[in-house]
Every structure is written in structure tokens, then in C-alpha cells.
Amino acid sequence: MILIEDDLIPGPNFIKTTLSLADWAREYADIGMVQVWNLPQQPVSEDDLDVVVPTHEHFYTYSIDVEVWNEIKDTLYEYERQYLDGVAYTKKDWRAIRKRFMKPRYSKLRTIRQGKTLLDAEHPHPPPFGPRLKRTVPTGQDAITALALWQKGFVRLATLAPRAVMKGVDGVHSTAKVFEQLGLNAQADYEWNQPVPTSFRLP
User: Which end of the chain is more exposed for a tag (fewer CB within 10 A), N or C?
Assistant: First the structure.
């Protein structure tokens, strides 16, 4: 199944590149999720089309294999059962989620998975929410997904060069101010028409 969120404008090779990256990533035991939309923090050129970076930011139209989902789903289902079922969104217990649910599962040390890995033990890969859980860390679905991946030793990859553009400045969860705070106003409007990479590399 391919599900593209309705505030994303995919480029010409968005789906093909996503599937190619997912196929390539299966060789590595530590890659849990991939996506080809990103907010690069550096200039990007056509020489960077095969570059991927580990990231915990901006979960957006990603690809995950069922084997990985089966490893992390219990964490998400438990979160849903404890804090979402029968509770209005505005009544969600943010503090308990951070203190009782996230903190016991959070560690500054990255779990190293068995088998062939893309990132070796010495590779710098910071935990999803920094060295410690602050009172302001997010507690939504994306945050818990990041936590579940981290807990199981998975990394998430995004192509350095985005293959799509996010729209939706004004909406249910967004305003121009929020759009700017998230850095979305600085996203690059790329339309890569080059052949889809079949292999990828770290910068």
C-alpha cells in the first residue's frame, strides 16, 4: 500500500525513489524506516541525489517494512491503549506520557542491532529528543514512533535531496507562524527528473 499525505506535492520520481531506497535499505539490520522528503540543512546539488542522512525529524510519507512494524508495534499500541483510548485530544496527559511512558524507554545509548549495519557503533547518531527528555518534548504519534524505533536500535533515513514539497501553510494544525517555526518555509522546491538511484551513501 502506498499512502501519500494530502499536504505533500510529490515530485516526478517520488514513489520510485522511495521504493528504491526501501529495497536498498533491507540489506542493513539497523534501518527501520526511509523517506525521500527532507529539510536539508545544507545546499543540495544533483551530485547529492544518492546521499542519505539519519534523522528523527519530520516523519512524512515514509516507508516501513512489516518486519520492522512487528518489532515496534507493541510500543505504539500500548501508548494508544494507555493514553488515547476514550480520551479527548485536549485531555491527553502529556506529563504522564513523558514521565511514565517515554522516560523508562529512553536511553542516551544507541542499541546496536545484530547483523550487517549501515552505522557502526562509533557513528554519531544522537537520540531522538536530545541527551535527556525535556518537559517540552513532543508526545504525539510521530514522537512515539521515533521512540519505538530508537528503543529497538533502528535508524531512520531520509534522502538529503527532497523529492517532494510540503504545502498547507494554513490548516487544522498549521499557521504561517508554525510553518516558519518548523522551517518549512525554507524547503527547497526540487523536481528531480534524473534516473532513480539504485544504491545510496552517507555524506
Answer: N
